[in-house]
Amino acid sequence: ENDIMETVQKERYADYLAEFRDRDFQREVFMNIDRSDSPETLAFLTRMFGQVGFGEWDILHKNTVFAALYARK
């Protein structure tokens, strides 16, 4: 939920994508993220799990601005 950290991570990922392929690829990936990703922070999502009735949850993996979550009611 820290805007500075989010900006740094997004810039690092953008640099990686451009180096991996090119700037067009970088733009395409970020457009796909904007279209399909949840705009909520990981902290927000994990707080909501308990509020909406999930009794069990975990963060399976987190890397830069991406995370894999598990939750079970």
Question: How would you describe this structure to a colleague?
Answer:
The protein has a two-stranded antiparallel sheet. The model has no long low-confidence stretch (mean pLDDT 90). The protein has 3 helices and 2 strands; from the N terminus they run H-H-H-E-E. With 73 residues, it is of the alpha+beta class. Helices cover 58% and strands 21% of the residues. It is elongated.
What labels would you give this structure?
single chain; 73 residues; alpha+beta; two-stranded antiparallel ribbon; 58% helix
Radius of gyration, taken over Cα atoms and rounded to an integer in Å: 15 Å
Whole-number average pLDDT? 90
H/E series? HHHEE
Strand residues, percent: 15-25%
- Helix content estimate: 55-70%
Number of helices: 3
Biggest sheet, spatial arrangement of strands: 1-2
In the predicted model, the low-confidence regions spanning at least 5 consecutive residues are none
Distance between the termini: 25 Å
Given the C-alpha coordinates, what overall shape results? elongated
Major beta-sheet overview: 2 strands, antiparallel
Compute the number of strand runs: 2
Helix- and strand-based class? Answer: alpha+beta
Write the layout of secondary structure elements.
Elements: H1 3-20, H2 23-36, H3 42-51, E1 56-63, E2 66-72
Antiparallel strand pairs: 1-2
Helix pairs in contact: 1-2
What is shown here, in short?
This protein is of the alpha+beta class and 73 residues long. Helix content is 58%, strand content 21%. A two-stranded antiparallel sheet has the order 1-2.
